């Protein structure tokens, strides 16, 4: 997974030289163990190898993933607790019926599942997640979208490594640009403008 970080940091050095300063050092194994104990499941090896190099990024306005923060494991735990508290308090039940999402094939129809681990955040309850509890047609460790006010749950990639490959390749091809106010954003997004 070092190759992905090397490519990403090389792009950042060229297009956003201050952005690598937002990267955290590699995650401590004990922190990963704490997350795995909390969720009662093992995280994919590709994810752990990637985070051993950099534990996401600091909380800054400029995001690494389409304007969103690449969460450190400690913040994944915090976000997981927020969602779990809503689940446990009945927040995903309306008129005594469980609220369902409208997922892509391969994702369960939960509004949120305790084995959907947030890996990015826009600060408003929207995440990309590692799905450790896929539907039968899905894959363990697939990367999915979870927007708190949108019922659709989409699959972005079949694994963490596949997602990294897709994203970093798209960055290198010029499909993403650096915007000072937001960070790395898709070139066609409304966030790509000059103030």
From TrEMBL:
> What residue stretch is flagged as signal peptide?
none
Q: Which Gene3D superfamilies does this entry report, sorted A to Z?
A: SMI1/KNR4-like
- In this chain the Knr4/Smi1-like domain maps to 26-166
Top-level taxon of origin: Bacteria
| Naturally occurring in which organism (per UniProt) | Chitinophaga nivalis
- Among the Pfam families in the record, one is SMI1_KNR4
Any idea what this protein is called?
SMI1/KNR4 family protein
Q: Which SMART domains match?
A: SMI1_KNR4 (SM00860)
Q: Which residues form a coiled coil?
A: none
């Amino acid at each position: 997974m070092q190759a992905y970080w090397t490519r990403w940091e090389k792009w950042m050095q060229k297009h956003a030289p201050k952005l690598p300063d937002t990267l955290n050092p590699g995650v401590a194994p004990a922190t990963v163990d704490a997350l795995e104990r909390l969720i009662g499941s093992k995280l994919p090896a590709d994810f752990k190898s990637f985070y051993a190099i950099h534990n996401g990024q600091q909380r800054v306005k400029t995001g690494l993933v389409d304007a969103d923060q690449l969460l450190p494991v400690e913040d994944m735990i915090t976000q997981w607790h927020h969602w779990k508290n809503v689940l446990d308090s009945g927040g995903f039940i309306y008129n005594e019926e469980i609220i369902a999402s409208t997922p892509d094939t391969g994702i369960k129809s939960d509004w949120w599942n305790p084995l959907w681990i947030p890996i990015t955040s826009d600060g408003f309850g929207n995440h990309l997640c590692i799905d450790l509890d896929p539907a039968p047609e899905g894959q363990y460790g697939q990367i999915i979208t979870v927007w708190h006010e949108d019922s659709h749950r989409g699959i972005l990639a079949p694994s963490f490594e596949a997602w990294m490959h897709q994203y970093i390749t798209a960055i290198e091809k010029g499909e993403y640009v650096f915007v000072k106010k937001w960070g790395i954003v898709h070139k066609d997004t409304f966030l790509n403008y000059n103030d």
